[in-house]
Design goal:
By secondary structure, the chain is an alpha/beta fold. It has 9 helices and 10 strands. The strands form 2 sheets. A 6-stranded mixed sheet has the order 6-7-8-3-9-10. Strands 2-1-4-5 form a 4-stranded antiparallel sheet, covered by helices on one side.
Length: about 250
C-alpha cells in the first residue's frame, strides 16, 4: 500500500498539484485519471521521487519516503518497477539487454540467473524468442510488453505505469490493460496507472482517483464513476462517445 498526504507542487507561479491525499491499495490497479495537464504524471513522479514536492508525504507500507534516510530510500527504490510512457527502451540494446538492465544495476545476480529471470519475465508478458531483436524490429505493443517485463524483472512490490496505452490501437490497449491487471493480482503488488483512456478505466478501474486542475476531485471505482455527481468528472467521462451512448442506454 502507498499512502500520500497533502502533496502540493508548483513550478514558478503555476500550481500543478494542490493538497492531494489518497491511498493506493495493494493487489489491484489504482488509476490516476484526468485530462492532459491536470497533474497526473507530476503526481506519479513525486510519489516515486523523480520530482520533489513542495509539501506533503508519501509512505510505502508505512515507510515515509520523502524524509527517509538514504538506506531507506535506496531500499524502497529497489522495490519499484516503472513503465515509462512510450516504453523508453534503450535503442542500442536488444530486448534481452533491455530487460536485464535493472538486474545489472541493482543486483549482483550471476549471469545465468539473470538470463533465467529475463526469459521468465518475457514469457510472463507473452514474448518468447525475441531476446535478440532490437526495439526497432518490434511493434509498439511489443515494446510496451518488453517495458513491463523490464519493470517486473526485479520482483517489485510497487509498479508504476505512465500512460501505458498511449499510441496503441484499442485491441492492443486491452491486452496491455489485462496484462497489468493479471500481474498486479498474481504478484499481489501495489500498481498505480496514469491514464486518460476511458476503456482502461471501465476495464480495470477498481480504484480510481480523478484529478482536475491539480486537485483531487473524486475517488471511487468504475461502477460508481458514471454517477459521481462531480461535473468536471462527468465532462471528462462523457466526452467519450461510447460513454455517452452508455449513459443514454441507462436512461431508457
Amino acid at each position: 500500500m502507498i499512502a500520500i498526504e497533502h502533496i502540493s507542487k508548483s513550478f514558478a507561479d503555476k500550481v500543478v498539484l494542490s493538497d492531494v491525499s489518497g491511498v493506493f491499495e495493494k493487489g489491484k490497479p489504482n488509476l490516476l485519471i484526468g485530462a492532459s495537464g491536470t497533474g497526473k504524471s507530476v503526481l506519479l513522479k513525486c510519489i516515486v521521487g523523480l520530482i520533489h514536492p513542495d509539501s506533503g508525504t508519501a509512505s510505502y507500507d508505512g515507510r515515509e519516503f520523502f524524509s527517509a534516510d538514504r538506506d531507506t530510500v535506496v531500499a524502497i527504490r529497489r522495490e519499484i518497477g516503472m513503465l515509462f510512457q512510450g516504453g523508453a527502451l534503450f535503442d542500442s540494446k536488444n530486448v534481452e539487454q533491455n530487460v536485464m538492465f535493472p538486474l545489472n544495476v541493482l543486483t549482483e545476480m550471476p549471469y545465468p540467473e539473470k538470463i533465467e529471470r529475463v526469459n521468465f519475465c518475457l514469457k510472463r508478458v507473452g514474448l518468447e524468442n525475441v531476446n535478440k531483436k532490437m526495439p526497432s524490429e518490434i511493434s509498439g505493443g511489443m515494446k510496451k510488453r518488453v517495458g513491463i517485463a523490464r519493470a517486473i524483472v526485479n520482483t517489485p512490490n510497487y509498479l508504476f505505469c505512465d500512460e501505458p496505452n498511449s499510441g496503441l490501437d484499442p485491441q492492443t490497449s486491452i491486452l496491455i490493460d489485462e496484462l497489468i491487471l493479471d500481474l498486479t493480482e498474481d504478484l499481489d503488488i501495489t500498481t498505480i496507472v496514469v491514464t486518460h483512456d476511458m476503456n482502461s478505466v471501465m476495464g480495470i478501474g477498481e480504484k480510481i482517483m480523478f484529478l482536475y486542475k491539480g486537485l483531487k476531485r473524486w475517488d471511487g471505482n468504475k461502477n460508481d464513476i458514471t454517477h459521481s455527481g462531480v461535473k468536471e468528472l462527468d465532462d471528462f467521462v462523457f466526452a467519450n462517445k461510447v460513454m455517452k451512448d452508455l449513459r443514454k442506454a441507462e436512461k431508457l
